[in-house]
């Protein structure tokens, strides 16, 4: 379970570049929930995921994972509990290491270090099976360097690695956005299979409205560093892409109305 309370994060405070990226985000994700996060560009989705995984420390608020307060934990320490896949296929894996070596590292998440990159024999055959199940023809390329694979193959492997040892929380930040439609579909299917099979508590950011309505059992919509709307249960099941698009339209309209209103107020008070 993930519990985020009153998170605040401002980048470059006190300068002309100041950005209030998180403005009091509160969110509760029960065990096994699959939450899809949507929102306009710059609404704070990635910042929220980065805050949870510890890329930086938040200014205030708390982050609890399975009942433990991890707000001040380092990113490394949180990585034992949190698996993540980014948009960029080039992050998340070590390009000069082979598939087998990368997965050997993933298999040791949260365990003692210093065993070297060798893969135990039993793990190797499990690995081959799971990679064959990806349907990407990678099972005979365990000794290939990750850097030689396509973006889609890398994302599928990164997902496999992030979930090899069941994480308390899986964070996916537009992990199919850089892939061609067919490959994106393949990686989404894999995501669904793994998340449902292992009942992983998951936060997935996407700009795809079909993904937002068809995946997950909860939806969170962010805007300007806040959670604007949440849908779960029947409401989430009934959502259609048009509903979300009209929500976005409402938000944009409110923003447009905001600007003249602010201008009016400024003029009244000068
Ligand atoms: N490391 C950083 N340093 C400075 N500003 C940042 C940093 N990370 C994010 N921001 C700013 O915080 C705001 C929120 O950014 P964020 O990346 O969380 O948006 P997002 O919702 O993920 O958008 P997108 O859909 O475009 O990925 C933006 O104005 C962004 O420029
Ligand atoms: Mg983002």
Explain this structure to me?
By secondary structure, the chain is an alpha/beta fold. It has 9 helices and 10 strands. The protein is globular. It has a single domain, classed as Rossmann fold. The chain has helices spanning about 45-55, 75-80, 100-105, 120-130, 150-165, 180-195, 210-215, 235-240, 240-270; strands at about 1-10, 20-30, 35-40, 60-65, 70, 80-85, 170-175, 200-205, 220-225, 225-230. The chain is about 40% helix and about 25% strand. The model has no long low-confidence stretch (mean pLDDT about 90). The strands form 2 sheets. It has a 6-stranded mixed sheet, sandwiched between helices. The protein has a 4-stranded antiparallel sheet with strand order 2-1-4-5, with helices on one face. The chain binds adenosine-5'-triphosphate and magnesium ion. Adenosine-5'-triphosphate binds near residues 11, 43 and 47.
For the termini, the CA-CA separation is 50 Å
Order of helices and strands: EEEHEEHEHHHEHEHEEHH
Q: What quaternary form is this?
A: single chain
What is the CATH topology descriptor? Rossmann fold
Parts with pLDDT < 50 across at least 5 consecutive residues:
none
CATH superfamily: P-loop containing nucleotide triphosphate hydrolases
Strand order of the largest sheet: 6-7-8-3-9-10
CATH domain class: Alpha Beta
Q: Assign the structural class, choosing from mainly alpha, mainly beta, alpha/beta, alpha+beta, or little secondary structure.
A: alpha/beta
Bound molecules: adenosine-5'-triphosphate, magnesium ion
Largest sheet: 6 strands, mixed
Write down the overall geometry.
Answer: globular
Q: State the domain count.
A: 1
């Amino acid at each position: 379970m993930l519990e985020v309370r009153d998170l605040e994060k401002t980048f470059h405070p006190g300068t002309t570049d100041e950005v209030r990226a998180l403005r009091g985000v509160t969110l509760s994700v029960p065990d096994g929930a699959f939450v899809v996060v949507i929102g306009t560009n710059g609404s704070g989705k990635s910042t929220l995921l980065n805050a949870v995984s510890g890329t930086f420390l938040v200014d205030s608020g708390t982050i609890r994972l399975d009942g433990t307060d991890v707000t001040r934990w380092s990113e490394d320490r949180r990585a034992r509990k949190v698996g993540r896949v980014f948009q960029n296929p080039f992050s998340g894996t070590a390009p000069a290491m082979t598939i087998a070596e990368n997965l050997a590292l993933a298999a040791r998440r949260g365990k003692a270090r210093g065993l070297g990159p060798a893969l135990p024999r039993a793990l190797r055959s499990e690995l081959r099976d799971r990679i064959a199940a990806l349907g990407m023809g990678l099972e005979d390329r365990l000794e290939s360097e990750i850097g030689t694979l396509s973006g889609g193959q890398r994302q599928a492997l990164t997902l496999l690695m992030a979930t090899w040892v069941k994480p308390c929380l899986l964070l996916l930040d537009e992990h199919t956005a850089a892939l061609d439609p067919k490959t994106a579909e393949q990686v989404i299917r894999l995501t669904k299979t793994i998340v449902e099979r292992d009942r992983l508590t998951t936060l997935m950011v996407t700009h795809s409205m079909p993904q937002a309505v068809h995946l997950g059992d909860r939806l969170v919509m962010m805007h300007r560093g806040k959670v604007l709307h949440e849908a779960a249960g029947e409401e989430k099941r009934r959502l259609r892409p048009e509903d979300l698009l009209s929500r976005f339209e409402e938000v944009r309209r409110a923003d447009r109305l905001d600007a003249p209103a602010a201008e009016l107020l400024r003029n009244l008070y000068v």
